[in-house]
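To whoever is on call:

I kicked off a structure prediction for a single chain this morning and the downstream step that reads the tokens threw a length-mismatch warning. I double-checked the sequence; it's 708 residues and nothing unusual in it as far as I can see. Pasting both halves so you can look.
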Amino acid sequence: MHRPTDSDRGAGDSPRDNGVRLERMGDVGLILVDHPPVNALSQAVRKALIAALAGVVADTSLHAAVIACEGRTFIAGADIREFDRTPAGGQAEVTTQDLVRALDACPKPVVAAIHGTALGGGFEVALACHSRIIAPDGFVGLPEVRIGIVPGAGGTQRLPRLVGPLIALEMITSGRHVPADEAMSLGLVDEVATDLRRAAADRARYLAAAGHLPRVADRAVPAYDQPAFEAAVAAVRRRARGAIAPVRAAEAIEAALRLPLAEGMAFEATINHALRPGPQSRALRHLFHAERMAARMPAGASPWPLRRVGVVGGGTMGSGIAVALADAGLEVTLVEQDAQAEAAAKARVRAVHDRQLRSGRLAPQAHAERVGRIVYRHDLKALHDADLVIEAVIEDVAVKQAVFRALSGIVRRDAVLASNTSYLDIDLLADEVDAPERVIGTHFFSPAHVMRLLELVRTRRVLPEALATGLALARRLRKVAVVAGVCDGFIGNRIFYRWRMQCEYALEDGALPAEVDAALEAYGFAMGPFAVLDMAGLDVDWMMRKRRAPTRDPRERYSPVYDWICERGRFGQKTGVGFYIHQDGKRLPSPEVEALILRAAAERGITRRAVPAEEIQQRVHATMVNEGARILTDGIAARPSDIDVVLVHGYGYPAWRGGPMHEADEIGLDVVLQRVETMHAENGFGWEPAPLLREMAAAGRRFRELNG
């Protein structure tokens, strides 16, 4: 990659000014954004870019320009810290729309040289350039819906003109990042180049010599399948489940099909400005920051190197973990107990990669590479040189302890040992190891190669470096990591157990499983709890319930319906019956389950009544917040925002609500406390308001004050 030297610079070159400087590559002006860490498109950067463009136009010795960035990425998006600010000194704001208009008006060709990520406003700037060159490891995208807004500088208007409305709709409403090879095949960029700046400069010179200024703004929307587009828009509205931004983004794209560019951009800007201060955008921006806070490394600690990783157990979870590790480029050894189990694990893993190949998500070469990264053994000694080993055997503490005892005598003392467990005390596993300070929990969510959340469990003697290694692993797997303390269920399952109890109470009080599920789906969950339990398998959770039974306080209300269902061998989809009857891909009501619910209510003397959806929603939310407050007091979660991240990414809490703790702040803790007090009055022992919730509500405080 060419980097200008002092001899390349002329008298017209400017020093770095507000994160932007203009240099020379012969007769091409190199406009460099240097605004660490991610070259965010701040107000100062926008102004400086417009000034640099003006400098290129004014300099007759410069025939074209290239916009490139220093550091690890192209312009990675807007500076969202500015969303809640007003320009200093009452000055008029220079917007990204002003910048793209300047690019549209530029009489000399401008080429974007993209490395890293060109996202949001960064990709909108690239779309306004006359050509786009991307590095092989680059990504582009318009992910504004992920923070509750729509693109604001022509993204919804230019993208349909460049690649058609169907591709634009999918990209914008999903917010996904498109890799370089796909960007090239879709026509989002003009070239993939390893010598990025030189290729961009060559393209700029070619356009200047040809007198060619190809603007996306000048294009008409290409021909498209209108019924297919209308069906895709309907699907976006269906999948939104209460989220506003994807629906409004679809409206803006529809506007691009009927309006001139300037009018379409004005329509888009109106939507952007209306959504930006709204509750959904505030909630999603809260999550954006929360995810980054949760993933911070322990102070002063650096992760240990990771190249070879072992997995013990090749069942559903173990095989999914192995897939995730191999997909991230790690060398994986999967160990099972015997040759037959080893073959079954290999078949499970191969089935995942083969599905990805058949669907087109994996190219044949990538498929072969990922399959080849995993070796299968049935002897733990195969893990002697592993940097990290993840145990993923059945959820039985004695079995897991035996595995850890065996591993302790095989692996290096500096190898991290991790347990994939949903509930169990990992300190008990660490006690079996000669160096317990290198033991952590890695609670993956099923399917492990798909779900984004990874709860990292901090044992009482853990070294900061071992925990940092877990965080580095999560980053490499592109997962959202949250550190939790040791308790039964950690953060997520401890809260899930409590709010599911309220759903079970609702059955006895008068609702049916389909009504509870419908209430929570209307709230924004993708699936209700009983549908999720049937899909996951009731037998797994039943083991946990039986394990907890001896310690359950008899004074606490307990619904036996779940246990009765399992005692009848009804374990959900795997057996064809659970809370529902599963037939031909459909969920049907079960008269047998309804009879069990009526029996439970009668035995407890409960007079059943209609339970409104709003009541179910409020009971679930209040339970989450109350248990979240207890978790904070116990030190299991470091901050309220960590609880939000866990519930959103692991349990389907609607992201546009920001998580239960954030939503409690929006509602008011005094209101939430009243709801908890009502539940306590109705359900008795075990449902007392958490002291922290009482204290904060009395003081008029908000959970966000504890986020740090």
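Update from on-call: the warning came from a stale cache, not from the record. Cleared it. Sanity check on the structure: The radius of gyration is 28 Å.
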